[in-house]
Amino acid sequence: MTISKIATRNKMTASLNMDKIFAETADPKNISFGMGLPDKTIFPDQALKTSFMNTFNNQGPDIFQYHSTQGPVALRNKIVSLVKKYYHIDVNGSNIILTQGGQQAIDIVGRTFLNKNDHIVVEGPTYMGALEAFDGYEPIYHEVNVEHDGMDMTVLEQILSETPNIKFVYTIPDFQNPTGATMSLAKRKTLIQLAEKYDFYIVEDSPYRYLRYSGQEEPSLADLDTNGRVILISSFSKILSPALRTGWLIANDELTSIFLSVKAALDVQPSHINLMAIDDFLEHHNIDRHIAKINTLYREKCLAMCDNLDKYLPEKATYIRPEGGFFVWVTLPESFDTTNLLLDSILQDANVVYVPSELQYASRSIKNKFRLNFTNSSYEQIETGIKKLSEALEAVLQLS
Question: Is-above-0.85 flag for pTM?
Fold first, then answer.
């Protein structure tokens, strides 16, 4: 009876058994390359503890009161400096809205733009959390394949020419989740031009931009934008701590006003205590130095995973070597279903977990790929896990 009462928009996600898969990820007996977790050893825990104590001591009882829906001015102004350095954009603090992580920012965009059966474009594959957020508003998805240098612009323009009133294109242009691909400059320019030609917004979700380990930096889409069509989403989750649940939206004046109304209806305001502690941290510590430290660690972990994939991965499997971010994307022959494979006894015995591709396509139709996270595991776990995973895959491939 319970299932019959659930809104239809929730049934697709529920049917994918995500809870079962994530339970496998959290099981301590497994080596998990599943969840996109930062390395806990890199958190500036002592400095954050001090910043929280400073916040309580300096703010007094007012820290426990209601505050601005948009977030404190002091922190928004610090984010102005942060995005100027990493995204090369000049914005006003009045155009920044602090959110409960990047996830809420995505949800605000969906809630603002989407009626049932509205059309949007997403990458295939894409961030499964974005799909979960958008699913709630029951859009019609148009999926564009991600190539080694970003989404296929030829396919995108074909979709745009055939489909009137696309509301927005959602993209992760820097070290894409899950493929790790980075959109080329040519494709970035084309996307901006298409937004002008076909009149849609671009949602640039870019929490990984700070984490480049090799290659050439490309300008952000927000940097290339001249007409306020890009909505930029980022957060502190990958560069400070995900538990702080602090992200932000940057948009033009008109959209900022609308987003603020939507945000107020959702939760009234972000956590003022957390925001003021972050502000104190940024006031007394060099965030650029901390980001550089993260990059040094993750560069080595990325290299370790790729080296082990080169050494152990079966010949019939391929992967994309990323220039930054959190993830490596692996492809098996088309006949394989990596969702079922993850729950197969051979993989269960290997005690290694990944995220299957089915969860990361709006169409749910591509099943022969999977995502690996390298940032959260130790070097020993990376080597052991990739070896065991590769041995299990080799056994499965030989049975096919």
Answer: yes
